[in-house]
Amino acid sequence: FFKQKTAYEIMPSLVGSEMCIRDRIRNGIFLSIATAWAFSINASLVAYGAHTGDKNYPDCRPAFSKKIESAFNQGEFDGIKSGIRKRIEIWSPYKAGLSKSQLLKKGYAVLGNAIFNTWSCYKDGKVQCGNCESCYNRKAGFREASIVDKTRYLK
User: Fold this and answer.
1) Which H or E run includes 32?
2) Closest CA to 142 of 129, 130, 154
3) DSSP state letters, 85-143
4) Is the Cα torsion angle 38, 39, 42, 45 positive or negative in sign?
5) What span, in angstroms and rounded, lies between the C-alpha atoms of 15 and 103?
6) Contact status, residue 94 vs residue 134, Cβ threshold 8 Å
7) Is 47 within 8 Å of 96 (Cβ atoms)?
8) CA-based Rg of the chain, rounded to a whole angstrom?
9) By CB neighbour count within 10 A (0-12 exposed, 13-18 middle, 19+ buried), where does 37 fall?
10) How confident is the chain (155 residues) per 10-residue block, as mean pLDDT?
11) pTM, rounded to two decimals
């Protein structure tokens, strides 16, 4: 029958030339879970890592986060109105106008070499693959930030 390829399988031909949508509306799912947790602990801020380089992904754009923030707060309207819950703000580096390289510079200033222990890869393993879209973007971000990338990659 018909076997659909995963985005990762077709990704190498797309890196650097076209966008690749790996998981549709993934951030909407993550934000739903994070916001439910935030409401349960009476937090007022949910942050996620979308940055200005993520403009090709609708669920990374500030317009999306603004609308989903409004929907979540509407869904908890009674709790917010009665004071049981706080309004949630969804924040991202994109909302603040920050690029991946700017984030890496800030992260490196705070974390030093520990920043190379962070994980970007779409694949699971002991080291990052170095070939998926996320690894490609990570490498490009370090280059643009003028930071020597000490991350261990398979490729």
Assistant:
1) helix 26-40
2) 130
3) SPPPEEE-TTTTT--HHHHHHHHHHHHGGGGGG----SS-SSSB-S-SHHHHHHHHHHH
4) positive
5) 21
6) no
7) no
8) 18
9) exposed
10) 46 44 79 96 96 91 96 96 96 96 96 95 92 93 97 93
11) 0.75
